[in-house]
Specification:
The structure is a single chain. The protein has a nine-stranded mixed beta sheet with strand order 2-6-7-10-1-11-12-13-14. The chain contains 15 helices and 16 strands. With 476 residues, it is an alpha+beta fold. Helices cover 40% and strands 20% of the residues.
């Protein structure tokens, strides 16, 4: 009988915090910019430059720690993690090993296997390194230090996950919590959320840990899922052949759907950590902690409960809307302004999601205002415009956030409800379409749809299809 294997996965998640300035200096954290434009003596590691801690970094870290049920360390310290690499200008990284800002938390995830608690070992603050750019044409490597000193928190889970599905559920839960806090936009494609996967396999039914590898260069949830499956297969094949799994760091190539070894896996002792002599301990008193707790926003889990009670929308609708804070904020304001939560939810879940997909956008990129969506809903509800026109107008609202009331008037899009005018147009349609008229009178109900379509085209879409159908039936 073939051996059965269990996959054991733990994650290290690096999250770039949404501060305007870096962790230890006043340089901008803005994404992009000319190489090395957002730099100073501190973030480029010049001799004699001293770091000064950004208070907002600590507050964001505390907020995330509280939201993932961690214990906040009242006296945390910074340490130097020593290693030599071109993108690391000081030859050490300021991080936290001995007294991290938060410990012993958890998040609840939901998968096909039910609910599960994923434990968080610890979370620490640290600075980001620069970025190496490899120019294959000139066969050189260039360094951009704009990212050097950008504030990060690293969230280290316990090895509680057993599948790619659980990993993605954990990451989606974590991302949603952090986005609701406003602590980061968590865009994997821009590097503001980066994931390292620690994975091992062992024989099912045993507690003996396998040898783990760490995988880097994972910049999408799909890449993470593919990398987990590929590494799981690779390790099982090695064990089946009687060979050893080496403890190492591997780089994932998503185009080739394969990984390759980068270096042997380091332990903490290899980095020769020691307390940073330039930074004082971070002392968090009761008053500061209570203020951060009081400032915590309503998180997704709380919104789900409230939406059911306050808006009486189905759980499936609420889950889709609250998956993005931006979407949830737009929904709540639109629902109040138009007085119709169900309609507000439908416009977001159907037309908004369709346009986001078409334009390759995320819900966080939505630019239209709740006020203009509410106006559009009221126009459609009042019958001022029909559903077809409403969808066309919404595309303009989505793209340019135009005022739909003003646009409808300027473009003459109001629904024509003058029965006399409709009857004159319908008479012409009946006269010009004898075959469809004959088919309908011969019992073919579908022919009526063709006649309604011809009428709507003649009316440039500015008619109520139900009223057109009613008059057609009378006249036929």
């Amino acid at each position: 009988m073939a051996k059965q294997y269990e996959t054991v996965i733990g994650l290290e998640v690096h999250v770039e915090l949404a501060t305007r300035t870096k962790i230890f200096c006043s340089c901008s954290t803005e994404f992009g910019g000319a190489p090395n434009a957002h730099t100073c003596p501190v973030c480029t590691g010049m001799p004699g430059a001293l770091p000064v801690l950004n208070r907002q970094v600590v507050e964001y870290a505390m907020a995330i720690g509280l939201a993932v049920n961690c214990t906040i360390t009242r006296e945390s310290k910074f340490d130097r993690k020593n290693y030599f690499y071109p993108d690391n200008p000081q030859n050490y990284q300021i991080s936290q090993l001995y007294l991290p800002i938060a410990r012993d938390g958890y998040v609840e995830i939901e998968t096909g296997g039910g609910r599960k608690r994923i434990r968080i070992h610890e979370m620490h603050m640290e600075e980001d390194a620069g970025k190496l750019i490899h120019d294959e044409w000139d066969d050189v490597s260039l360094v951009d230090y704009n990212r050097s000193g950008v504030p990060l928190v690293e969230i280290v889970s316990e090895p509680d996950m057993r599948s790619a599905e659980e990993v993605i559920a954990y990451l989606e839960t974590l991302r949603t919590i952090i986005q609701y806090l406003g602590a980061s936009d968590c865009k994997l494609q821009e590097g503001s959320m980066r994931v390292d996967v620690n994975l091992s396999v062992r024989e099912a039914g045993t507690d003996k840990p396998g040898t783990r590898t760490e995988m880097k260069n994972l910049n999408s949830f799909k890449a993470i899922a593919r990398a987990i499956e590929a590494e799981r297969r690779r390790q099982i094949e090695l064990l089946e052949e009687g060979r050893q799994v080496m403890q190492e760091t591997r780089r994932w190539d998503d185009n080739k759907e394969t990984s390759y070894a980068m270096r042997s896996k380091e332990d903490a002792r290899d980095y020769r950590y020691f307390p940073d002599p330039d930074l004082v301990p971070v002392m968090i008193d009761e008053e500061w902690l209570e203020r951060v707790k009081a400032d915590q926003p309503e998180l997704r889990s709380e919104k789900l409960v409230r939406y059911k009670e306050e808006f009486d929308i189905p759980l499936s609708d609420a889950e889709m809307i609250t998956s993005s804070k931006r979407m949830a904020d737009i929904f709540e304001e639109t629902a109040v302004l138009c007085g119709n939560p169900k309609k507000a939810a439908n416009w977001l879940m159907v037309e908004t999601m369709r346009l986001l997909k078409e334009h390759g956008m995320e819900p966080g990129d939505i630019a239209f205002s709740p006020a203009n969506l509410a106006k559009l809903i009221r126009l459609a509800d009042a019958g001022t415009i029909n559903s077809s026109v409403a969808k066309n107008v919404f595309e303009k609202v989505f793209a340019e956030d135009i005022d739909p009331e003003q646009y409808v008037e300027e473009m003459g899009l109001r629904t024509v409800s003058d029965e006399g005018a409709l009857r004159r147009v319908i008479s012409r349609v009946i006269e010009d379409t004898p075959q469809a008229v004959s088919d309908y009178r011969g019992g073919k109900e579908k022919a009526l749809g063709a006649l309604v379509g011809r009428t709507m085209k003649a009316m440039e879409g500015k008619a109520d299809p139900a009223l057109v159908g009613k008059i057609l039936k009378e006249m036929l």
